[in-house]
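Quick one: Oxidoreductase from Oceanisphaera avium, structure tokens please.
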Amino acid sequence: MTKENSEHHSTASPKSNASQTPLKRQLSGADDRLKLEHWAPPKAGIVPLIRFNNRWYSVLWALPIIFVLLVAGVAIAQGLRELASVQHFIELFPGAPASQPAIETGFPLWLRIGHFLNLVFMMFIIRSGIQILADHPRLYWHRDCTPGTEWFRFQKPVPRGQIWTAKDDAVTLPGWLGIPGVRHSIGLARWWHFSINTLWLLNGLVIYGLLFYTDQWQRIVPTTWEVFPNALSVAIQYLSLNFPEEQSWTKYNSLQQLTYFITVFIAAPTSVFTGFMQSPAISNHLGWLGRVLNRQRARSIHFLALWWFLFFILAHVTLVFITGARSNLNMMWAGVHDESWSGFMMFVPLISIVGILWAIASPLTIRYARYVQRIGAFMLGPLKGFLERFDPKSELTEADISPFLWPNGTLPNSSEYEELVANDFAHYRLCISGLVESPQEYSLAQLRALPQQSQITTHFCIQGWSGVAKWSGVPMRDILAAVRPKPEARYAVFYSLAEGSEGGRYYDCHKISNMQHKLTILALDMNDESLSVLHGAPLRLRCENELGFKMVKWVSAIEFVEDFQHLGAGHGGYNEDHEFYGYKMPI
Ligand SMILES: Nc1nc2c(c(=O)[nH]1)N[C@H]1C(S)=C(S)[C@@H](COP(=O)(O)O)O[C@H]1N2
Ligand SMILES: [Mo]
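--- reply ---
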């Protein structure tokens, strides 16, 4: 207890001393590094499981199955090549359509640079993506995330008979795999994922542009249906271990062409699109599209796209090395078509740089967590500011309400809160102060007496889960009208009765513009019943263009401020301070 607290203690009042301390003094500072001793303790996941017909199978089964299929495939392909009809087929379709043009310009520098940058970026994107997944290690095909209905998980079933929050569910990844490999480090992983994605996207757009500006697009864009029989022919030739003649310098065979086409023109855009569709602002803005391609579907498809990339990388790298490594490296790394070692001489130092980047990414992220947050916010701030302007107008129907909404966060555990619950919140007051013309204090009865609004909306937690509920309460625009923020007020700060995970009150800041949305409310009810303690009784915020952590539960005070640098550690909220999240979180 601080000195201020004890001094005020004598003034007898139903309110506890804590609520008399100036609000900002109840906030806590935060570390600028990810300090493991302050962090969620590690917790191992399990070998990933996939569900078919209500039975769970380990993904490790894929290894013997793929092995058997490959061996059988080789035997069958070798048998097939003995057949006259198949020999005739291969003669007819040797591996590339006759009409496919030969590219005479080889592998220009821009293509080789783009290829290398893509490799570097993909390394970071895949690792941070898996880290994000580990924060909610389950995948679903429908909008809600009811335990037991997932189709993929690398976490045990949700334990019954105890409160199990989404944060409890997060698992640890090794530091060489995830970035930064620490349990529940999604805040940092997202900065990596989104900022490198931005670079990857720019690189991709330059490559798209130059592919079509030059003749290089003809390498990877099929222009005739004949690619399909030719691809089959190449598959038989590869599988029979009697490889087709290499002519990659001027044209790719049809199997290469199809896989590159799928990777560049289908898998990459699918990843980008399904990535954006997981955003509350975008999904809630898009109406039917956000409903059909809901967050969990988007997340599952995003994950399947990852598998395509992993499959592609494995197959691509394997074939580069077994179909003439020296000549293949010469083409894509040195841009020459000869038998020199120049490609190898480029490849070794460059791939060593990738290895070094790989090794330092996690330790540096842990050490310089605040910089990762700052750089990420700098790179993505404009995009996030833009997306915050999307009106999150999408409402759903009673039939869409989820049977289960994951609970999250740190529950209140003060005697002050217990007392409030014991008295049915009779002593509860919502205090609205700060840069307003008319500060207000509301009891629960007064809040209930104000005009109420109901909405059925989707909750998007940063960790990846979502769920639909009906929320009812007081529109924030009515509160704004009552308190009249002064012109210099820019943010509304929501203070919780509960502490955050590392102590100090949970709080979060919202732009005033977000408070004016039709669907921003102070919710008193969830699914037609008073909010439960777990979900934020007696009052929580709903702000539908933001992620869940910004919707403070157990709200006791709202303060209007010009800036939030003087609050807590100064980053705009509890999770912004302590878990390196961004204060603008429409994605
Ligand atoms: N006071 C407080 N509010 C909080 C949190 C918290 O830890 N403390 N967690 C947030 C997070 S991360 C989410 S996803 C939602 C979860 O709301 P629910 O438990 O009703 O699903 O509450 C948000 N509000
Ligand atoms: Mo969350």
